[in-house]
Model the fold of this input.
Amino acid sequence: MLTIHVAGASPEEAVLVDGASVAALGPYEDLAAARPQARVRWWPGILTPGLLNPYGPELLEGMYHPDPREAAEFGTEPITGERARALFRADESRRGASARRCVQRLLAHGTVAVAGELRTRAAVDAVRRAGLVVGRRPAVLPGPASFSPAPLVLLPRLVPGGPARFAVFDVPDRAGLVRLGPSTCVATVVGGRLVHRRR
Done:
């Protein structure tokens, strides 16, 4: 199915998606005129190629991401260090569920790629199933592991024929994204599929 994704702050940078690929890029009016049968998804803010999070192992394997049903016992924030390791030792099945919840949080921050060597099957499977790309880690990491690392690492520009992998952030421009961070993500598309949408 053909879909045009267009963000209100950058309608001149709309994306026509055909299946898992980018079919065309350009102003919304041009894409809509060329493909009037395409479904249109309007988003607030700006559309970007999506982010690479350099902390794949730290976030996916080094933290336990509690299930919302565990909030009374563990809270809602990721658990790190020895406490996380103890939870994994006590119940290995927690590792896979935690990795899947971590992936959902990554997608909710406009992340479409992670970097770092993943060593556990649970993390590898969660990343593969979500369609996240595993990229090369920067030589210098920007600071502590975070869903909102600074500086942000944007993937290369979208190209026709390339993978439909991008994110939309409810900010006025890229400077606003840098200032306000990736928690402003309203939509993430991976392999042409809408894998995150802010409710």
About this structure: The mean pLDDT is 95. The helical segments are 28-34, 56-60, 71-74, 81-90, 93-107, 121-130, 174-180. The domain at 2-50+159-197 is CATH 2.30.40.10 (Urease, subunit C; domain 1). The longest strand covers residues 2-7.
